[in-house]
Amino acid sequence: MGLEIPRALSVGAIQPNIYIGRNYNIGFGNQLNADKFENNSIDRYTSEYAIKKMINANPKIKKIVKDFNPNLELNITGLNQLKNNHLKDVQNIARGITENLPFSLKSRVDENAVEKAAYLHDLGKVLIPKAILDKPAKLNPEETKIMHTHSELSYELLKTTDLDEKTLKLIRNHHQNAKKTGYPWVGKDFNADLNLQIVSIADKYSALTEPRPYKKSITPKQALTIIYQDVKDEKLHPFVFKALVNYAKQNETKTLVS
């Protein structure tokens, strides 16, 4: 990958000590190469009316949740909290990563698909029971299995809408990676392309740096140290990581100034 790591992230600031060769290859294996008042807003996909309509249009949703939410109860309060916090944050981080990519890569980003996927990727959590979503402790294996259905649920809900297939695949696979060790299952032709890596790592960075019922937030430097392991494991391209680091530094500067 043209990646040389002489030492880990420096202790003082958010700064990766990495060298990336000029003759880089973006590939991993293959390549990296609502209601009427919301018609013009992405929020049209997140209203209670729209979600119920999606459920009625896709019988597969009921099959997925039959063992843990047979009555198809919607956690609209939880979804609104996500919209006001995590989803907006992921959207901003994804935008920041894109802006900090080298021009040759930035020109290959489908910014429209990335923006929409970043905001809608967790829509399926509206069907995850509140007791699991807000559990103030580590999930047990069965609860983890239920939680992991949220990305497929997001996909199955939104596939009944006018969203394009590229956006839908980003939403479905936002917990996957270039090594195919994430979820849900993907076939041998799966490619963790540049767009997916942006959405995936923006989601991970946001999740690490925000408080959750089961954990406290950690600092940007700590989050980047954790994410750097994905670079070493070849799950994340170093240029995407470098763009995230630059975004984090810029955001840190803005916070200090304000």
Can you identify the CATH class? Answer: Mainly Alpha
Report helical residue fraction: 40-55%
Cα radius of gyration in angstroms:
19 Å
| Overall number of domains | 1
Q: Tell me the major beta sheet.
A: 2 strands, antiparallel
The parts where pLDDT drops under 50 for at least 5 residues are 1-38
Shape field: globular
Write the CATH fold name.
Hypothetical protein af1432
Please give the order of strands in the largest beta sheet: 1-2
- CATH homology superfamily: Hypothetical protein af1432
Q: Tell me the strand percentage band.
A: under 5%
CATH architecture: Orthogonal Bundle
Using DSSP, what is the number of strands?
2
Structural class: mainly alpha
Euclidean distance between termini CA atoms: 38 Å
Write the layout of secondary structure elements.
Elements: E1 3-4, E2 19-20, H1 48-57, H2 59-65, H3 76-84, H4 86-99, H5 103-106, H6 111-120, H7 130-133, H8 141-147, H9 150-158, H10 165-172, H11 194-209, H12 220-232, H13 238-257
Antiparallel strand pairs: 1-2
